[in-house]
Amino acid sequence: MNSFILKGDIIYSKNREELSAFPDSYLMCRDGISEGVYKELSDIPETYKSLKLIDFSGKLIIPGMSDLHLHAPQYGFRGLWGDMELLDWLNIHTFPEEARYAEVPYAKRAYEIFIKDMLTTSTTRFCAFFSIHREATELLMDLTEESGLKAYIGKVNMDRNSPDYLCETTEESFEETLRWLSDTRERHYKNVLPILTPRFIPSCTDELMKKLGGLIEETGLPLQSHLSENKSEIDWVKELCPESSCYGDAYEGFGCFGSHGNKTIMAHCVWSGDEEIELMKKNGVYIAHSPSSNTNIASGIAPIRKYLELGLNLSLATDMSGGTTNSIIRIMTDAISVSKLYWRLCDESKKPLTFPEAFYLATLGGGSFFGKVGSLEKGYEFDAVVLDDSELETPMEGRLSLTERLERYCYIAGERPVEHKFVAGQMLF
Ligand code: GUN
Ligand code: FE
């Protein structure tokens, strides 16, 4: 089961700076795990020669990508409302739309569209916020499980500074979280895991944050939230948490910043200062860099080169629908573009991201959150996608290296549906 050989033009990250490229080669999957690349059919050990061979000759085979931060109930309004900053955008557009997910039929229709579209992208794994609504969250968990994609999914907590129609009491928020966790355990999912999801400090009381911190201490559950995205948001957190030395320290004070050794994702980190950065490094917090969102709602440019130099856990994210695209390939090229603006306009010592670096972040960078994921090297879970660049005509055909073909595909066709997708050795299509 889940053992086969793929033939094609194989490419993945060798390390953070370089790609490994194997033209017209063979990639073996055994029981859902990569056995690595063989340059010739004759190199494959005799015992495996009878495995099914799937011929993708002339096509690119790359690792599946990870999207470490998105909001499923915002998927319906992708491409709209990018003309305001975070706090207005939340109050005027986002909260009223998220409130609709109290209605299960509406949520079902929306989430079916979301999953159908996610299947077509290069993403094999994602971490998603849902709304405060437990039933709709469970519905999306079921749909994700059935799709074969792998994900951490979180019921959102909000018990203050939110409109009445999208606000829980502290008790309700915590009790519903416990009920959701227990329902999730009973469903014995293979592909989906729960992740605690306080929306951000402005929408969660100290009491609720402390309860979530206590739950992490008891259970080791992972957590996802937002951090230092927008200047008005940061000023607001200073007022709400006057004792804390920075926004990250406020999460830390509640036990919600990875200090219990639990996996933690913080989206954005556009304006993080030295102390906050140090704390993220110490606790192994993953930064979900979301350049499309940071541009749309004018949050700023995250100092991504600085985070790379400091060796922080770094990943890419669409942040739909602050971000517009559902494609992590498109996010890779956006990340490169904004890093050039940062270099030119903010700090000339911080060189732009290179293409191999962005590819690394999209694959191994985010994949490591899920375990041994994000590479086609021997020993990694077999997440792979097949891309067809044959229709992207150019007179340079035949002269381009594999790396150049991949780079060109990412820039000019990154939002096209992928040809085939494998997750943990399962061929989805
Ligand atoms: N901060 C709190 N909620 C949100 C959200 O929905 N999107 C973004 N981009 N930032 C947030
Ligand atoms: Fe977000």
Folded structure, characterized:
With 429 residues, the protein is α/β, with parallel strands linked by helices. Helix content is 37%, strand content 22%. It has 13 helices and 17 strands. It has a seven-stranded mixed beta sheet. It has a four-stranded parallel beta sheet with strand order 5-6-7-9. The chain has a four-stranded parallel beta sheet with strand order 11-12-13-14. A hairpin with a 5-residue loop joins strand 1 and strand 2. Helix 2 packs parallel to helix 3, helix 3 runs parallel beside helix 4 and helix 11 crosses helix 12. The chain is globular. It starts with a strand and ends with a strand. Bound molecules: guanine and fe (iii) ion. The site of guanine (GUN) has 11 residues, from helix 1.
Q: Could you list the spans in which at least 5 consecutive residues all have pLDDT below 50?
A: none
Small-molecule binders here are: guanine, fe (iii) ion
Assign an overall shape. Answer: globular
Q: What's the total helix number?
A: 13
Which class best fits the helix and strand makeup?
alpha/beta
Largest β-sheet summary: 7 strands, mixed
Amino- and carboxy-terminal Cα gap: 16 Å
Q: What helical percentage do the residues reach?
A: 25-40%
Order of helices and strands: EEEEEHHEHEEHEEHEHHEHEHHEHHEHEE
Mean of pLDDT? 98
Radius of gyration computed on alpha carbons? 21 Å
Features:
17 strands; binds guanine; 22% strand; alpha/beta; 429 residues
Write the layout of secondary structure elements.
Blueprint: E1 4-13, E2 19-30, E3 33-38, E4 53-63, E5 65-71, H1 86-99, H2 104-120, E6 123-129, H3 134-147, E7 150-154, E8 156-157, H4 170-187, E9 192-194, E10 197-198, H5 206-219, E11 223-227, H6 231-240, H7 247-253, E12 264-268, H8 274-283, E13 286-289, H9 291-296, H10 304-309, E14 313-316, H11 328-346, H12 355-367, E15 384-387, H13 402-413, E16 420-423, E17 426-427
Parallel strand pairs: 1-4, 5-6, 6-7, 7-9, 8-10, 11-12, 12-13, 13-14
Antiparallel strand pairs: 1-2, 2-3, 4-15, 15-16, 16-17
Helix pairs in contact: 2-3, 3-4, 4-5, 11-12
This protein binds guanine and fe (iii) ion (FE).
